[in-house]
Amino acid sequence: DAGVIQSPRHEVTEMGQEVTLRCKPISGHNSLFWYRQTMMRGLELLIYFNNNVPIDDSGMPEDRFSAKMPNASFSTLKIQPSEPRDSAVYFCASSQDRWPEETQYFGPGTRLLVL
Amino acid sequence: SQQGEEDPQALSIQEGENATMNCSYKTSINNLQWYRQNSGRGLVHLILIRSNEREKHSGRLRVTLDTSKKSSSLLITASRAADTASYFCATLGDGGATNKLIFGTGTLLAVQP
Predict the structure, then answer these.
(1) Cβ within 8 Å of B, A 38-67
(2) Residue A64 near residue A77, CB atoms below 8 Å
(3) Residues A25-41: tens digit of each pLDDT
């Protein structure tokens, strides 16, 4: 199994540009999570999907952030326009529906730097 | 707000020693999980303990849970240099059918060879 796949692994962009992060969950997993990790704020849940439907987006910082899951094997997190304070490592994770004993499998992360 | 707070924030030990990390949380939980994060990598699940369990073992890992004190501890015995990583607790609330884990702030463990 290839695990959770994220792309790109690194992204450097300028303030005001649009950034799109991509995630392919593990096949057969029906929950997908987007996290952001910074030194200051730790690991924050931004949004999660179950069966491609957004369930909880209360962690999305503001309207500049949006996430989609058009099918079971692909999700995107978009930041438009990007700002320097968005610089962080963004993780995607997926889990199989075995509530409440689901464990999450994390991707390698996308390291985003907004100049 | 953070549900879990790990203690200590950082821990440095010698190879072969035991490492103990603690986690406190605020609300009722369904289960508590521990994850490890190596530098520059994603988190990896280590062990899950249910709210009705008090202790669980997995290899060199021992987890305890005290729901009356809303706290958990992770013990790594006979530590190795490869155990150097950050360790996070994560809780699943018991308020409903949510998949949402709340992660703590993490403990950075350094095992000196």
Answers:
(1) 42-43, 45, 48, 50, 55-56
(2) no
(3) 999 999 999 999 998 88
